[in-house]
Amino acid sequence: MALPDDTPGRRTADPEKVLDSRRWVALGVLLLVQFMLILDASAATIALPSIGSDLGFSRAGLTWVIDGYVLMAGGLLLLGGRLGDVLGRRRMFMAGVVVFGLSSLVCGVAQNPEQLVAARFVQGIGEALAAPAALGLIALLFTDRSERTKAIGLFGGISGLGGTAGPLLSGVLVEFASWRWIFLINIPVAVAALVLVPRLVSGGRPSGKWSSIDIPSSVGIVLAFTAIVFGAIEAATNPWTSLQVVGFISGGVALLAAVLVHQTRARDPLVPLHFFTDRTRLSANLVTVFFYAVFFSQFYFVTLYLQTVVGLSPLETGLSFLPFGITIGIGLSIATALVPRLGLRSVLVVGTSLAAVGVWLLSGITPDGSYVSDVLAGSLVLAFGSGLVLPCLQIGAVNAVTESDAGLASGVQQSLQQVAGAVGLAVLVSLAIGRSDGSGLEPAAATVDGYQLAFTVGTAILVVAAVTSFVVPRGASRA
After folding, report:
1. Better-predicted residue by pLDDT, 239 or 150
2. 303 and 178: one domain?
3. Contacts of the segment 226-232: beta carbons below 8 A, 24+ positions apart
4. Major facilitator superfamily (MFS) profile domain: from which residue to which, for each copy (predicted)?
């Protein structure tokens, strides 16, 4: 027979300790979902050669496996955050996990390119709903400032871990199982989150109104950048001056201009234009655009080079990214220590310059090269420079923000990262394919010739990023 609560000899659980335990368990579940979201973006890159050969993707079409996801995730991120405010963060988190889990299942069983790309677009929607809601739930769970700082730090750290572990896990799954498992592995994580989160996290109170959601701008941004990316990918098989290319790109630019005009007139704009009046914030976001346009693309080209030209297996390719992850972590630590002493601009200029040198070294790859002779040095220099750059961009993006617009500042930068990455990848892939198709060389040499052009153009873009870094005010963020 169970003893009543007041029976002598029975220990009654301390409600405060139980609540504290539940909060940290809830944080663990939220971190696991965030790990899954970030992992899926990076893991797909290693699997691209296997996906392409299995489903019959064209060289240009394979770009959509990456771009479809990041376009929707980045373009709808701010909308997802506002929906969480209006409908409740737990509700939007659950909806995002459901969308992500179901679309992961479709990705895992896809039988043709169209099915996989469509499911990747829907996966991006799932991330746009779940990721900002998860961060908002952490703020609800941890009201103490020191605990909240620790929890948010863990949230950021798990994101970095997901990006680093993605290539390795993908290599293991593709090598010993199938590329399909990089998507199917998401399903048990999604189910666990759907079971545990309602029991551990309260719903929270909605804090906004439907009238405050700028849906037209969000949809317009996604459509605009999708058109621009589609036009850029079309340039792989058509001249840049052709109707297909010019039509889609100019249409996307026109739609972006319309969104900008709408922002000046909307009562509750998605991003108020006065948000960019801060010089540090504006320059940091500009550097973000140039930097991520190249940063995303390098994983794509290095992966294809190592597997299709050098002949490494998926597992070997995944392992080859470990030095990159370790080096970028070293750069992050050094940047964190240097910014308060030297200021944001100095560290950002050095970081973007080193990243440019690293990509320039990668442009020296050869058809008969190897990982050690052709990739390792450039990737390490790029990694260290990127490690210096990444915290600088985050610090600059939230410069002089208040509590009321800190979430907006972070959301804007995350959106720019993904959208710029999608556009940059589309442009560089088209340039590479156009060069290789017109080179008249043997297949391997023609492929490498195209990759060399992509790395060279990427170097030029990073030089622009380094020059733009000088716009950051002297002494910004110095202690």
Report:
1. 239
2. no
3. 226/71, 226/75, 226/252, 227/251, 227/252, 227/255, 228/252, 228/253, 228/423, 228/426, 229/67, 229/71, 229/422, 229/423, 229/426, 232/423, 232/426, 232/427, 232/430
4. 26-477
- The rounded distance, in Å, linking the Cα atoms of 350 and 361 is 17
CA dihedral 473, 382, 34, 122 (to 10 degrees): 100
Taking a C-beta distance cutoff of 8 angstroms, is the pair 308, 428 a contact?
Answer: no
Other residues' Cβ atoms within 10 Å of the Cβ of residue 145:
8
The token pair at 60 is: 């240009």
The tokens describing 421, both together, are 């990455």
Instruction: Please check whether residue 200 is in contact with residue 94, taking contact to mean a CB–CB distance below 8 angstroms.
Output: no
Report the length, in residues, of the chain.
479
| pTM for this predicted structure | 0.87
Q: Do 148 and 110 sit in the same domain of this protein?
A: yes
H helix intervals, 363-442: 377-397, 406-437
Measured distance CA(199)–CA(212) in Å, rounded: 30
CA distance 264 to 271: 10
Q: Is residue 461 part of a domain?
A: yes
Residue range 205-258, pLDDT digits in tens: 666 666 667 888 888 999 999 999 999 999 988 999 999 999 999 999 999 999
Contact 69, 183 (CB under 8 A): no
Q: Write the DSSP assignment of 38-87 as a string of letters.
A: HHHHHHHHHTHHHHHHHHT--TTTTHHHHHHHHHHHHHTHHHHHHHHHHH
CB neighbours of residue 445 within 10 Å: 16
Calpha distance 106→120 (Å, rounded): 9
Compute how many other C-beta atoms are within 10 angstroms of the C-beta atom of residue 470: 11
The answer to whether residues 226 and 162 touch, using CB atoms and an 8 Å cutoff, is: no
d(C-alpha 462, C-alpha 454), whole Å: 12
Q: Position of tokens 């009321």? A: 404
Query: For residue 155, what are its two tokens?
Result: 């949230």
User: Does 454 lie in the same domain as 312?
Assistant: yes
